[in-house]
Design a protein that fits this description.
Length: 181
């Protein structure tokens, strides 16, 4: 068991996340490679559980509330999401699990939506460094316009991921995380 800011994360939560990661990895790896990555995936599951707890605490601290109607809508959609239901089933109150998941998602959206669109200079710099563009296409305006727009989305996504990782790192630096029993 882990304790994050006096909140327990039970081994079952980490194990459920580990199994989810293993299922995802099994789609892309051979059984031998999967076995080699097992330890790293277990650690990743642990880190995901810690990050989720910290994000939930921050969402509650910010007063992010989820109305019952949103929980109900999410519950209907979540019936198809096996990993969420696996986690929720072990809790006594499935609605509270869904409310927590919605709070975390709203917090994540608020963090990534605060990231501004990349400037033209940032996009062009990324394109210049990437060398993805064939030399014969560099002077084709229609092709370059499509490439610039797709690259703008890619750069924004990279910036959003960086912002979220920095936000989680800040939460982790202020958290008290320890093994518990």
């Amino acid at each position: 068991m882990l304790i994050v800011n006096d909140h327990p994360i039970d081994n079952e939560t980490i194990e459920t996340e580990y199994k989810r990661l293993m299922r995802l990895a099994a789609r892309q790896m051979s059984p031998g490679d999967l076995e080699k990555k097992s330890s790293a995936l277990r650690q990743q599951a642990r880190e995901h559980a810690i990050n989720r707890r910290l994000l939930l605490e921050e969402a509650v601290r910010r007063g992010i509330d989820i109305p019952e109607s949103e929980v109900e809508r999410f519950l209907l959609q979540a019936k198809q999401a096996e990993h969420l239901l696996d986690q929720a089933r072990k809790k006594e109150n499935i609605r509270e699990s869904i409310r927590d998941a919605c709070r975390v998602e709203k917090l994540i959206k608020s963090v990534i939506m605060a990231v501004p669109d990349p400037s033209d200079d940032e996009v062009l710099k990324y394109l210049a460094e990437s060398q993805f563009i064939p030399p014969d296409k560099k002077n084709d305006p229609a092709f370059m316009q499509k490439v610039v727009e797709k690259t703008r989305k890619l750069v924004k996504n990279v910036c959003q991921n960086k912002a979220l990782n920095e936000f989680i790192a800040k939460l982790r630096s202020a958290a008290v995380i320890r093994e518990g029993g």
